[in-house]
Specification:
Length: about 130
């Protein structure tokens, strides 16, 4: 087998392997205030469930979170926030404030922008990787 055929075969074999490999750049958005965690995917999901009218127990259970963790997250969110995002009426009933609902909306918009950014980043990475391979 001459060198030209061998080289092309090796490139073809390599490309076939690469067709089955999909690289994906990912990430999540976390918001901090004064180096303290404020918002992230889990906390926003918890706020959304509470905003839908779920009890804290039901909201936590639906997210695979225990009651204590959910309550600690609510306390931490309110501690970091400028205004309360959640008001505790009793052990089970937590109400998301208007400010809290606005924070949810802003976070979800930020998440959409982040998703678009990651899609562009993935496309750029694929283009650069293709140039390197060829």
């Amino acid at each position: 087998m001459n060198k030209f055929i061998l080289r092309n075969y090796m490139i073809y074999s390599y490309m076939q392997k690469q067709e089955n490999t999909e690289y994906k750049i990912g990430g999540q958005i976390w918001v901090q205030k004064n180096a303290e965690n404020f918002m992230g995917p889990g906390r926003v999901a918890l706020l959304e469930k509470l905003s839908e009218g779920c009890s804290i127990s039901r909201a936590a259970e639906s997210l695979g979170m225990d009651y204590t963790t959910a309550v600690k997250n609510i306390i931490a969110i309110n501690k970091v926030a400028d205004k309360p995002l959640v008001i505790n009426h009793n052990d089970e009933h937590f109400e998301v404030t208007r400010y809290g609902n606005e924070i949810i909306k802003v976070y979800l918009q930020l998440k959409e922008e982040h998703t678009v950014f990651l899609e562009k980043l993935n496309k750029t990475f694929e283009e650069k990787l293709t140039k390197i391979i060829l």
